Automatic annotation (TrEMBL):
EC class of the enzyme, as a word: transferase
Keywords: Acyltransferase, Transferase
Keyword Transferase carried by entry: yes
Segment forming the signal sequence: none
Name of the protein in its database record: 3-oxoacyl-[acyl-carrier-protein] synthase-1
GO molecular function: 3-oxoacyl-[acyl-carrier-protein] synthase activity
Organism of derivation: Mesorhizobium sangaii
Enzyme Commission number(s) from the entry: 2.3.1.41
């Protein structure tokens, strides 16, 4: 069985502990922001984890969230757990942005973490035809990883002298009723609805999407879903839109997809190899949740923007 695993974690580390270590490592790379004695910052941490599956401990989101909170030991920190699979990180961005907009938090961190490093999980994947192998082309290589992003209100960023790297412009979610385990043919209605939810923002600014980052992992279901969705939402994308699906490099990273996509989009923007300055990040969970995030970056490649 082929899989991608973190090189610093021993193979016998239990799954919940693996995910905690991965998540904490990602969070510690974020800017460490503290308030003042007069005005302590209200912080929100959204912990995004896989959906229930064989080999995954029950209530893994709550378990990892509690372990992270104990490790960080930060005051005025509220933790929210979200076990929604591949789309969890992007859904988490929406929850964090809403909390910031409503003044319930000054800063919010979204961490997505996942790991398939469990023999029961791998056995289940193999039995259900999800594990890519020499005899099964319609599967994927499982991975593990974590990504974290810090979201800050504009006034707080200015007060703390933080320079924003990107702007979360919009979040759109929808539900696909014909999931990957259904016997019916999926024609991408859920993903289409999620994309089309961005239409008012894209059309108002007359600025099409130039780059996309997605969780295509080699499964035919996901590829066909995208084809149907792209036909319905084609007007939202620039003619030469760039599509990046990093699962072919780092494996399927599940619930950590959204935050890790942000890191790739940031790198492309800062190093100037993106198509333009507007990126769409999208992912789909096994139970049907579809989510798309729209990010705007400083124009690193003016000729392509």
């Amino acid at each position: 069985m082929r899989l991608v695993r973190d090189a610093l974690l021993e193979p016998d580390v239990k799954l919940a502990d693996r995910m905690t270590e991965l998540a904490v490592s990602a969070l510690l790379q974020l800017p460490q922001i503290d308030g003042t004695a007069d005005r302590p910052l209200n912080s929100l941490l959204v912990v995004c984890t896989p959906e229930p599956r064989p080999g995954l401990p029950a209530k893994i989101a709550e378990t990892v969230g509690a372990a992270i909170s104990q490790r960080l030991r930060r005051t005025n920190l509220r933790v929210q757990s979200l076990a929604q699979g591949h789309a969890a990180g992007l859904v988490g961005f929406g929850l964090a942005a809403k909390a910031l907009d409503e003044g319930r938090a000054d800063v919010a961190a979204v961490v997505g973490v996942d790991s398939y490093h469990d023999i029961n999980t791998l056995g289940w994947m193999d039995e259900t035809g999800q594990l890519k192998s020499e005899v099964n082309r319609d599967g994927f290589f499982p991975g593990e990883g974590a990504g974290a992003c810090l979201l800050v209100r504009a006034d707080v960023a200015k007060a703390l002298r933080l320079t924003p790297l990107a702007r979360l412009t919009a979040i759109s979610t929808a539900l696909e009723t014909i999931t990957i385990n259904s016997e019916e043919v999926c024609v991408g209605e859920g993903l289409s609805a999620a994309f089309l939810g961005l239409a008012p923002v894209v059309e108002a600014a007359n600025q099409q999407i130039t780059d996309t980052y997605c969780d295509l992992n080699g499964q035919r279901y996901r590829s066909e879903e995208l084809v149907y969705s792209a036909m319905r939402a084609n007007h939202l994308f620039a003619p030469e839109v760039e599509t990046t699906h990093p699962a072919d490099c780092w494996g399927d990273v599940g619930a950590s997809s959204g935050p890790l996509f942000v890191s790739l989009a940031l790198a492309a923007s800062q190093k100037g190899y993106c198509r333009g300055s507007r990126a769409a990040l999208w992912a789909g969970s096994g139970t049907g949740r579809r989510a798309v995030a729209l990010l705007d970056f400083p124009a690193a490649n003016p000729e392509a923007a």
